[in-house]
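Hi C.,

You asked whether I'd gotten around to modeling the 231-residue construct. I have! Everything is below, sequence then structure, no commentary in between.
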Amino acid sequence: MSATPAAWIAGATATHRRIENAIRNLTDAEARQPSRLPDWTVGHLLTHLARNADANTGMVQAAQKGEIGVQYPGGTAQREGDIAAGAGRPAAELVADLTGAHQRLEAAWGATQEDAWATGLARTTAAMRSVAHTVLLRWREAEVHLCDLGLGPDWDGLSPAYIDVEWAEMTANLPRRAPEGTILFLIPGDRPSRTYGAGDNIVRVQAPSSRILQYLFGRGGDPSWPSLGAW
């Protein structure tokens, strides 16, 4: 079995193309409109996606040299400053910037050898990760923010391949996120139902897998479903 995360690379690359298709005819007015994220316009979100792609490029290129790359060397201040500085650009510039960032990242992934995928490390904003894992994190970033853009695709449009991978990721730590004394009974319909947590209070979370993931990300869900701990 190869250490190269080929399926994750293919999935993230396909989602990059979906984002590019969604913004192909972006207007300046659309770039200024609110996204589905509080206080962020579409321009903020596209700038974030571009700088996140460049950050991932830097991490994988460091791994190619046997180094541990830092996602944002300047920390939170760099991340927020870059987003604020780029958010107000014309639509054409935003689109070109993100498209170029996608191309650079995909080229870096393609140039990475098996040993770097197997042994490389990177320091993301949250933790030390294997460099292979950063590909999945980028795929997540692209899929979720494509929904957040509010330009067409929403949570019902998540790619089936991504849902399969993310379902395993997001449910793995669900027991610790469930409210005390509560069992979350997830009923997605397209995969086996399971319970998470412990206690006497049973909450049935019945919805399509994509909408349950939306809830697990804290992006929505039935008001009767309980608030979850940080993921």
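If it helps when you're writing up: The chain has a mean pLDDT of 96.

Thanks,
B.
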